[in-house]
């Protein structure tokens, strides 16, 4: 059996999330999965296909449609020693549960003087790209990064999705897993389903370079690499792309190391610009590496408006073209 | 108050069916009314079939929740609506917009995301509105329209305009907590709101038995002293009678009313749902035995309200309305990228 397990398998993001959850459900009886349609139907995006059949309906639980109720329920489960994985169908539905995520799950450890913790995973399928209209295309992560007590992960590859799921389930604190809907079926990768968790809090250089650092996460990592490749050809710019992977706690060491090497920074996220995660990144970089910067930090993000149903996928989301323009701005800037 | 479930949509044999329809048919429904309802329901059905086609052709993107099978509910409700009544519903909203008088062209063009759509292509299938028709959406968050509908009723009451709010949700949404917060306030302040719960038996892929501890949804107002009634939502005349009763209650200042409409959606939850959680036999049984349009057609025949030829003529007319809407929805231009930035705040 282990020989089969060790073989590298071609896996989509969907399958990776499924495999990660399956691994933890199979190996830890305290892990439960709950959410709307996660059981019999296998989840709205089919991320939990087959899990109820394998694990049973006592642990893969179809819930009523009630986000606040589901999350609050999971908080109670977690306080009592279970490790619930909660699926919110779209991150746009998460706001009803905001209080229980940020002021209960993320506060119990602190509020109880370390007596309690809430080891739970909240899965938030996010981002646009499927013409979902403004409610179903949201990038909500910035609402959750404002105070501590919760970890926030955003995988951009199938392997990361698998390993981050495992890491999130095993983490003793609440974890918000920001899943990239547009990547669910868009790519696949081969890796061994060995149950090894990702390291939370570590960024990764996904394209090494020396002239400029792009900091990004989720689907925008891929757009950043495309932009970097394009400009390497046309402008002879050598761009380093860093996939942050963990938003809280972010990998400040890797970020500073790269920034000090390149001296130029472009931050890319799909969420709106103002007071977004990029604003915090820019602030921290200038505090800690001001003397290394050759040019002002550039940000590429969505405008501070709702996601447009008809033209949002093309005009709202940042893309390689817009990232390329920001790279050029950062390279050409003169004080 | 009416707490007893009304006649259930029973699987009656064909011969008996006509009889039961004739029985359920309120004697005060005129022939013209029957034909009006028939046309309205047929328009919804043909419109939705066309929307499904356009979706299949890739002309409609994203989500698309069809109303096929539930037409009698909204047509029966609308038939009693007064001029100041306000309406809000969920994302399964195309039928509601058509029934409440919105232009099929504008609705279809919103589905295709064009400038000619009710929200100029900004909202899409789930998010469109008409101030002219007192239609407040189209809401993409399950259940969230119910407290908003309660606020509409507050405004109706405050302005003393005689209006009643129609707030629609499904059997899945009825388990959202905010609905009960709304129930409490509505009853406390005696707000004129009819909560229409369209019980089509499935909240997305989960059947009501698997999602609700108490499946008699008309009882959900018990703790708030809100009267409720279960209605055969496949029978437009029965729906109308229930809507009249509820509206009368609301307009008399007695507060909210819950109508549980027992109905059925023929298609999946959305276009991307193959509906594997139920059998094909189950769907075809409903289609054959309690289709709302067939029932009304039989009713029209019984009453001799129209000849077959006249009904065929009506079919043709509806078809041409839908064809024109689909053409408009494809010809209307795409929004300009600058539209991203319009209507964010009031223009200076």
What is the CATH fold-level name of the largest domain in chain A? Rossmann fold
Classify the secondary structure makeup of chain A into a structural class.
Answer: alpha/beta
Q: Tell me the number of structural domains of chain B.
A: 1
Named CATH topology of chain B? Rossmann fold
Give the strand line-up of the largest sheet of chain B: 1-2-3-7-6
Kindly, what is the distance between the CA atoms of the first and last residues of chain A, rounded to a whole number of angstroms?
A: 63 Å
CATH top level of the largest domain in chain A is Alpha Beta
- Give unreliable regions of chain B as ranges: 1-24
CATH architecture of chain B: 3-Layer(aba) Sandwich
Order of helices and strands of chain B: HHHEHHHEHEEEHEHEHHH
Spatial separation of the terminal alpha carbons of chain B = 53 Å
Account of the protein in words:
The complex is a heterodimer of chains A (335) and B (348). Chain A is of the alpha/beta class. Helices cover 37% and strands 20% of the residues of chain A. Chain A has 13 helices and 14 strands. Chain A has helices spanning 2-6, 13-27, 51-55, 67-79, 98-105, 108-111, 141-144, 158-170, 219-234, 252-262, 277-289, 312-315, 320-332, and strands at 8-12, 31-35, 60-62, 83-87, 121-126, 151-153, 175-180, 188-192, 204-207, 212-216, 239-243, 246-248, 265-272, 298-302. In chain A, strands 3-2-4-5-7-6-12 form a 7-stranded mixed β-sheet, with helices on both faces. In chain A, strands 9-11-10-13-14 form a 5-stranded mixed β-sheet, sandwiched between helices. In chain A, helix 2 packs parallel to helix 8 (158-170) and helix 9 (219-234) crosses helix 13 (320-332). In chain B, the strands form 2 sheets. Chain B has a 5-stranded parallel β-sheet with strand order 1-2-3-7-6, sandwiched between helices. Chain B has 348 residues and is α/β, with parallel strands linked by helices. In chain B, helix 2 (31-56) packs across helix 3, helix 2 packs parallel to helix 12 and helix 3 (71-78) crosses helix 9. Chain B has one domain (21-332): Rossmann fold (3-Layer(aba) Sandwich), CATH 3.40.50.970. In chain B, 44% of the residues lie in helices and 9% in strands. Chain B is built from 12 helices and 7 strands. At the A-B interface, helix 12 of A face loops of B.
């Amino acid at each position: 059996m282990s020989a089969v397990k060790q073989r590298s398998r071609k896996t989509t993001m969907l399958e990776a999330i499924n495999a990660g959850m399956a691994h933890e459900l199979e190996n830890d009886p305290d892990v439960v999965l709950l959410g709307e349609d996660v059981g019999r139907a296998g989840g709205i995006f089919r991320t939990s296909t087959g899990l109820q059949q394998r694990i049973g309906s006592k642990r893969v639980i179809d819930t009523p449609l009630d986000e606040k109720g589901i999350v609050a329920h999971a908080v109670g489960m977690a306080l009592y020693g279970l490790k619930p994985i909660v699926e919110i169908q779209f991150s746009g539905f998460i706001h009803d549960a905001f209080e229980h995520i940020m002021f209960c799950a993320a506060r119990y450890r602190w509020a109880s003087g370390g007596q309690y913790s809430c080891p739970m995973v909240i899965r938030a399928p996010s981002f646009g790209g499927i013409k979902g209209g403004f409610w179903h295309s949201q990038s909500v992560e910035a609402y959750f990064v404002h105070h501590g007590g919760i970890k926030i992960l955003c995988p951009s590859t199938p392997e990361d999705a698998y390993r981050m799921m495992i890491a999130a389930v095993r983490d003793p604190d609440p974890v918000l897993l920001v899943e990239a809907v547009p990547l669910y079926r868009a790519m696949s990768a081969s890796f061994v389903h060995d149950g090894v968790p990702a390291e939370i809090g570590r960024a990764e250089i996904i394209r090494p370079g020396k002239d400029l650092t792009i900091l990004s996460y989720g689907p925008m990592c891929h757009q950043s690499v495309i932009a970097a490749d394009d400009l390497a050809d046309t402008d002879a710019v050598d761009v380093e792309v860093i996939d942050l992977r963990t938003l809280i706690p972010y990998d400040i060491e890797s970020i500073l190391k790269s920034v000090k090497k390149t001296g130029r920074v472009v931050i890319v996220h799909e969420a709106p610009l103002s007071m977004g995660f990029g604003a915090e990144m820019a602030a921290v970089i200038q505090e800690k590496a001001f003397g290394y910067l050759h040019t002002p930090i550039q940000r590429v993000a969505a405008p501070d408006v709702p996601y447009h149903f008809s033209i949002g996928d093309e005009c709202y989301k940042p893309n390689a073209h817009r990232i390329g323009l920001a790279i050029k701005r950062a390279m050409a800037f003169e004080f | 108050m009416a707490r007893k479930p009304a006649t259930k949509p029973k699987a009656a044999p064909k011969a008996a069916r006509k009889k039961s329809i004739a029985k359920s048919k309120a004697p005060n429904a005129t022939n013209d009314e029957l034909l009006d309802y028939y046309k309205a329901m047929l328009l919804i059905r043909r419109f939705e079939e066309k929307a499904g086609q356009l979706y299949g052709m890739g002309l409609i993107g994203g989500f698309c929740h069809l109303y096929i099978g539930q037409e009698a509910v909204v047509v029966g409700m609308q038939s009693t609506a007064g001029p100041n009544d306000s309406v809000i519903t969920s994302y399964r909203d195309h039928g509601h917009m058509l029934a409440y008088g919105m232009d099929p062209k504008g609705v279809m063009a919103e589905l295709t995301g064009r400038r000619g759509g009710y929200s100029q292509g900004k909202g899409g299938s789930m998010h469109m509105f008409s101030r002219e028709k007192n239609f407040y959406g189209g809401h993409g968050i399950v259940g969230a329209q119910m407290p908003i509908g309660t606020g509409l009723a507050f405004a109706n009451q405050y302005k003393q305009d005689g209006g009643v709010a129609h707030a629609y949700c499904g059997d899945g949404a009825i388990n959202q907590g905010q609905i009960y917060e709304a129930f409490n306030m509505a009853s406390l302040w005696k707000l004129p709101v009819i909560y229409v719960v369209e019980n089509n038996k499935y909240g997305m892929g989960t059947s009501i038995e698997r999602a609700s501890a108490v499946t008699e949804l008309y009882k959900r107002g018990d703790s708030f002293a809100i009267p409720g009634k279960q209605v055969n939502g496949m029978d437009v005349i029965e729906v109308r009678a229930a809507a009249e009763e509820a509206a009368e209650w609301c307009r008399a200042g007695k507060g909210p009313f819950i109508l549980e409409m027992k109905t059925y959606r023929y298609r999946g939850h959305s276009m991307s749902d193959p509906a594997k959680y139920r059998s094909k036999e189950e769907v075809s049984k409903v289609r054959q035995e309690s289709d709302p349009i067939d029932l009304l057609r039989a009713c029209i025949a019984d009453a001799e309200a129209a000849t077959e030829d006249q009904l065929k003529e009506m079919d043709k007319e509806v078809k041409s309305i839908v064809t024109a809407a689909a053409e408009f929805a494809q010809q209307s231009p795409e929004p300009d990228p600058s539209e991203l930035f319009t209507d964010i705040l009031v223009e200076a």
